[in-house]
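Pipeline run #58 for the internal structure catalog. This entry was flagged by the ingest filter as a single-chain record with no existing model, so it goes straight to prediction. Upstream metadata was stripped on purpose; only the residue string is passed forward. Reviewer on rotation: M.T. Logging verbosity set to normal.
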Amino acid sequence: MKMKTAWENYDEVQRQTLERLCAGYRAYLDAGKTERECVTAAIALAKAAGYRDLAALRAADEKIGPGSKVYASCMGKALLLFQLGSLPLTRGMRILGAHIDSPRLDLKQRPFYEESGIAYLDTHYYGGIKKYQWLASPLAIHGVIVKKDGSSICLALGEQPDDPVFCISDLLPHLAQEQVQKKAAQVIEGENLDLICGSIPLQGEEKNAVLANVLRLIAERYGVEEEDFVSAELEIVPAGPAREAGFDRSMILAYGQDDRVCAYTSLVSLLDAATPQQTACCYLVDKEETGSIGATGAQSAFFENTVAELMELAGCYSELALRRALAASCALSSDVSAAYDPLFGDVYSKRNSAFLGGGLAFNKYTGSRGKNGANDANAEYLGEIRRLLDAAQVCYQTAEMGKVDAGGGGTISYLLAKYGMQVVDCGVPVISMHAPWELTSKADIFEAKRGYDAFLAATAAHK
């Protein structure tokens, strides 16, 4: 049976809208290769759409009401945005949640060393990666260095055409007889994922002269010393921009699409929304790839505390009102799904897989091996979602991560569900998930945006 794709539904006007959305998405990916950069870019878009800083409103004791647009940032690495609806907050919110961190390499606090005339930067990988995929490819350094006096230096080196890039060496095939016999997880050890960063010695230095020259160049260009890297957050990411892929330009190949593809479509859906009935919320979080822990992860109190502040400015806060508002809410935990890849079809359950071009993918449950760690959405909520998407003529599909015993994955959905709200996982299907370069379909990106639009615009339902 022929699989129908979303592409077959579009007229010329829709294709033009799709291309504008995806052009904006590529620009967002290029501007946001770290969670800090994603928050900065999102706040700029939000301010342009009339959103105001919740902290500033609180400081001025300025009251808010239906139609008010506000945002709140946590340490510059997590973000909440709200558009207040016509109904009281105790009637709940409609929440789009996604994460903005992605698998990568992080510099260690003392990263510099020299060996055999080569200067290196020592790293620690972040999130689930296949380590061998990071070898012999151009890499960039992004992040912030905070000096002892409290001033900070933002760094994004390796993205401009005249920037230097960095790389991790691989073993030449002529000498790799033993290496190629190893399991993929053992081809390179984590401690050997170190960046080559220089090879010219500093004249007059007898020991570690190459490293001395690298540190001299860094001090001259950025005004930072080696000890300043102790208070730095520097991330190693693939160098280069997001690209259109395929002869037909139907796909996007880029770093960090898990989960910035859902973050961007959720964000622009909120920014485009008219005043809703229920308050609309976009929740962009950090640390999902490492368990959602920490002050900027979804396990923190940032979400709950910010909703309390919102209700205080709206004149309706009490502890009971807050609990009622959270329990009456509903959410789409928007995280990417694994797209069926026919070259690796043996690990997928094809009948229950998402396909490129098939539209927004819904996962009733995630987790692994017996639904361990999963939020399992209620059938009633799925029925409500189906009705509103069908009414908006959104193309969508249902999916699981893969075969039952092949593995699995998790999202932030269970952390929202703890409040008693209705939550289901959904997102854009991705090929090569967690690789340095991931592949998505423009049609799925467009359908995600359309699905989020329909979700935020829906009338409030009683639980």
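catalog note: The chain has two domains: 6-102+255-457, 104-238.
catalog note: The mean pLDDT is 94.
status: ready for reviewer M.T.
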